[in-house]
Amino acid sequence: MNKEAEFASKICNQLEAGMSALDPAVLIRLHKARRLALSAQTVHDLKFVGIVAAAEQKILSHAKTLLMVLALSVGTIGTYYWNGDEQAHERDEIDSALLTDELPPTAYLDLGFQAWLKPSVDLSSQ
Amino acid sequence: MNPVLNSRIDLSDFLASIERRAFKQAMFAVKNREVALDVVQDAMMKLSEKYSARPANEWPMLFQRILQNTIRDSFRRSNVRSLWISLFSSFLSDNDDETDPLDIISATSEHKGLRSPQQQIEQTQLLGIIEAEIEKLPARQREAFLMRYLEELNINETALAMGCSEGSVKTHCSRATHTLAVALKAKGIAL
Fold this sequence. Notes:
Structural class of chain B: mainly alpha
Helix content of chain B: over 70%
Distance between the termini of chain B: 47 Å
Largest interface: A-B, 37 and 45 residues
Oligomer: heterodimer
CATH architecture of the largest domain in chain B: Orthogonal Bundle
CATH topology of the largest domain in chain B: Rna Polymerase Sigma Factor, Chain: A
Largest sheet of chain A: none
Shape of chain B: globular
Order of helices and strands of chain B: HHHHHHHH
């Protein structure tokens, strides 16, 4: 221990000795302060535990509903994407049929074009 | 065991272990017993409400930081209060600060049964001189000195609690110790 720490330690020993003889009124007040602080901690912790417990109970009581809503959401989203894929696939087929065909562009203005295109797409797919 | 109960016991032990020293620190700073007790109570409440969930080994540093902030808040409040009191000072008496030295001697005598009355008086006087010299230290030096040597925080913890660098802590401690040594030597006291 260096000189500074040694001297400081001696001073603190004197202070500690003085603290062992504090006025009883001060000690009572300090004890009361400690009790108040601990009761504040208890209230805080109990509040936290209570909130967690209440949240758990609410979540469990609504678990069935939540599962159903979740399944419905998954189904709806799945259907939406599946339909999107189907439509895109159909458009691809139409586009490729148009591009590979040797018809003149005026043929595309023909009202019966769709009627002609469908069977030709069916044939190309076979 | 219930963790809440465990934590409560730990906190109770911690507060019991630091309450006297915290009171002394507050007394050195605010120089008023009732205000010092209020400061310690506020600091304990804040630690308990906001930081009791933190690891127990962080409590000493956190408590010191809270205590110093609470002391500063108390100074601010008293400044505002003294402004109003000064307006009505003529209505107040000056007898409140009078304390009987015999009260202090009678309080200490209960715990020092083995010492002679002469030794008890000398001890009380020595303590009074040391405390007076600690009170005279600049606030930051006193904080650093008490945290390092009375609370036995390490330099890093003291720096965190004081919100300054480790170098500053060393400087404050060194200056405080030097000032105390010179002051006590001037009074013919050798520890």
